[in-house]
Design goal:
Helix 4 packs parallel to helix 5, helix 5 packs across helix 12 and helix 6 packs across helix 8. This protein has 14 helices and 15 strands. Helices cover 40% and strands 20% of the residues.
Length: 398
């Protein structure tokens, strides 16, 4: 096999895309509901190491007779599936996705791309090697209001400041409440990835501090403030907490986009609002007042295509990508930098100083070279002139 620049298109026989879902836990069931609601997708089987869990999920969502198994690739071959949806725990993302890609199946995977950036780089190389699409479902990008906020920001001229407040008070129980860095490791990747989307730029460096308020019910640090520098000099500030009851923000966060000509505000749940220096007050995107303001030279309101909502949106885009070859958001090469932002933030708070993203990428690349056991995947990794160039080699969109 040899590295290929694009990804294979799955031919259509006029029917839906047949998929095997791997992982029958709570998130797997959310994906099963998304699959059931999409007429362009047909569930061919459910795989899980716990066969009883797979059988239970099959009975709940499809009924008796749906193929199940412990091995995703074996099940996909046996059931005639055309693609695999990987909803396993992060530690299993790398082995499950690697096996699927090497077996010739395109993969849609839950975030994060893998447990580490190093494993993510291995998966990017495996996708190149096989010519198969590996798309990461960074589901909070799929939000019409987020797209509207990005469209409104085009009226701001040069954007220099992006910030988000994220304040929630969930009581999960379980693993999150004993993690060392629960907010940064389990949640912040959503806002970090959304920032990359809004700025349409790549991160350069970060300074981060995490801490745990005295009243926190989390064992690890449940609050953090991080300031990222992006290409072109823009700054992104994340200020968040998972132990802040009262006046909680949206799960998407509360956003401000500040540019030379004005500001866009988005509360994370509703239509964004924009105010330009030449206008007066806030003008809600999509409102009658916004249309009048646009006519009078005020806020410019642009039509926004509906990207779908969260995992339903990412599933829809994945199907379109493997059917047509259209470049999706979240392709593995493009998504890795979102996880790199998380690793850089954690390293900054531990080391107590600014951390360059290239430092994370370089260290991860060396780790990937040292850990890779597939000679063909290793050859692809070694062919990259640099990590940044390797991640940019295919025609990828952020």
């Amino acid at each position: 096999m040899s590295a290929q620049p694009g990804f294979a298109v799955v031919g259509s026989d006029g029917g839906p895309l047949r998929v095997v879902l791997v992982g029958a836990g709570s998130m797997g069931k959310a994906w099963l509901r998304a699959v059931a609601a999409n007429s362009d997708v047909e569930l061919a089987g459910i795989a899980d190491l716990d066969l009883a869990a797979a059988e239970s999920a099959a009975g709940e969502f499809v009924g008796q007779g749906l193929p199940v198994g412990r091995d995703a690739v074996e099940l996909a071959r046996r059931s005639g599936a055309q693609a695999i949806i990987n909803v396993t725990i992060p530690a299993a993302h790398h082995p499950v996705t690697t096996a699927a890609l090497l077996a010739g199946f395109p993969v849609l995977g839950e975030k994060p791309v893998a447990s580490t950036v190093a494993e993510g780089l291995s998966l990017a190389a495996a996708a190149e090697l096989t010519g198969q699409l590996f798309m990461v479902s960074q589901s909070r990008r799929y939000n019409r209001h987020l797209f509207a906020a990005k469209a409104q920001s085009e009226a701001l001229g040069r954007v220099g400041i992006l910030s988000v407040d994220f304040f929630k008070a969930p009581r999960f129980g379980g693993f999150r409440e004993v993690m060392a860095s629960p907010l940064l490791l389990d949640m912040a990747i959503h806002q970090f990835d959304m920032a990359r989307f809004l700025l349409d730029a790549d991160p350069v460096s970060v300074t981060c501090e995490e801490y745990n308020p005295a009243w926190s019910w989390f064992g690890g640090n449940a609050a953090a403030t991080a300031t990222f520098e992006f290409d072109g000099g823009a700054r992104f500030v994340f200020n968040g907490s998972w132990c802040s009851p009262g006046f909680e923000t949206s799960w998407n966060g509360s956003w401000r986009i500040s540019g030379e000509l004005g500001t866009v505000l988005w509360d994370g749940d509703h239509e964004p609002a924009v105010a330009l220096a030449a206008g007066e007050g806030l003008v809600e995107a999509g409102s009658a007042e916004a249309g009048l303001a646009a006519e009078e030279g005020g806020a410019v309101v642009r039509p926004v295509a509906d990207p779908g909502q969260e995992i339903a949106g990412s599933l829809r885009e994945f199907v379109a990508a493997v059917r047509t070859g259209a470049e999706p958001m979240g392709r593995v090469h493009a998504n890795i930098l979102s996880l790199a932002m998380v690793e850089a933030a954690v390293k900054s708070t531990t080391a107590g100083h600014r951390v360059a993203l290239d430092e994370i990428l370089s260290d991860s690349y060396e780790a990937a070279l040292g850990a890779e056991t597939n000679e063909d995947v290793l050859r692809v990794l070694k062919s990259w002139p640099s990590v940044r160039e390797g991640l940019a080699r295919p025609a990828l969109g952020r």
